Amino acid sequence: MIETPSSAPAELSVVVPVFNERDNVAPLIHEIVAALRPLLPFEIVYVDDHSTDDTIARLLALKQEVPELRVLGHGVQSGQSTAIRTGVNAARASWIATLDGDGQNDPADIPKLLQARAKADGQVKLFAGWRVNRQDTASKRWASRWANAIRSRMLRDDTPDTGCGIKLFERGAFLDLPYFDHMHRYLPALMQRAGWRTLSIPVNHRNRSSGVSKYNNLNRAWVGISDLRGVAWLIRRSRIPRAREL
To answer: Cα separations (Å) of 37 from 25, 34, 98, 107, 183?
Structure first.
């Protein structure tokens, strides 16, 4: 039996930022639909970060067959963190799932994150994917281990993998966080700074089947050093008072 879209308000918004991912949008969208349509009312919010290929045209064509799909587009290229924030701002559900647009995250893991949320207490506002079997190049895996070790030492965020694109978080808690470029790499530390708890959940990771990576180890390292110092400063300067109504 083929599931049909529910007319109920969305309980989950799946936000996917993309830049030049023309051949990955259709397979990923169909996987999201297959994973979620039997479970709950949802929407898919794609944010195109000013692609120079025909990603937008393909997304608009897909709207005709996937009624849950919404498409937003940036007028200028603004980066992944800004694209995620654009999607979260536009989202209609109170909880957000994010996926990278390259297809390396598996939408079949979203139900696993939802199950973890159902078992957790209300203080957990972020469920972060943890790529236990990464399918990247050896140099990327080495750079990621190096970066995670330094980040963990400085921020003490108790998170083994902050670079995984699949996450589940409360929309309001996310929008309360300080916004800056590349903030998506520090969501566990930022959520904890705000007084919330976070959990890491093992998830699948896949090879990129089409297109090319938009990052390299060198530019990621230089930007990461500056961002890491900034996030560490934010944590040192944070205060979370306990208040009671008088």
So the answer is: 18, 6, 17, 12, 30
